[in-house]
Amino acid sequence: MASCDLDIILDGDKSRYQIGEQLKGLVKVVLGQPCNFKALFIELEWQTRGSGSEDKETFVHLSLVDGELPAGEHEFEFDLLLENQPLTYQGKHINIDWQLKVCADIPWALNPCVTKEIVIVSNPALVALPSK
After folding, report:
1. pLDDT tens digits along 21-36
2. 3 state SS for the chain
3. For 127, which of 25, 71, 74, 76 is 20 to 30 Å away at the CA?
4. Which domains, from first to last, does the chain contain?
């Protein structure tokens, strides 16, 4: 099986973002030999953890490539708008965590995935002030 190393590199090496901000970066793929992908994709998702039931939702799913890539390094840029979604929260009974996840769907192989946690906070500039 071909080696397939994945990495997520965020612009400015940031990990904290505000609602309304652009989340930009690139996915780096290093292949030891040519590889045929059924899919290579990036997802932005949140999930809850803690006491009670857990929940998970994929906010964005972007297909990066399907088909064959030659051996070597490949980079795919992404640019996601962080719209109004649950904010990152760390509490006593529940956490809301965000992550970027990149997965490669390779026929007849274990599908490699890599994740990067991010923090999404409110944006004071987008909070509406009450009208008088």
Report:
1. 999 999 999 999 999 9
2. CCCEEEEEEEHHHCCEEECCCEEEEEEEEEECCCEEEEEEEEEEEEEEEECCCCCEEEEEEEEEEEEEECCEEEEEEEEEECCCCCCCEECCCEEEEEEEEEEEECCCCCCCEEEEEEEEECCHHHCCCCCC
3. 25
4. 4-123 (2.60.40.640)
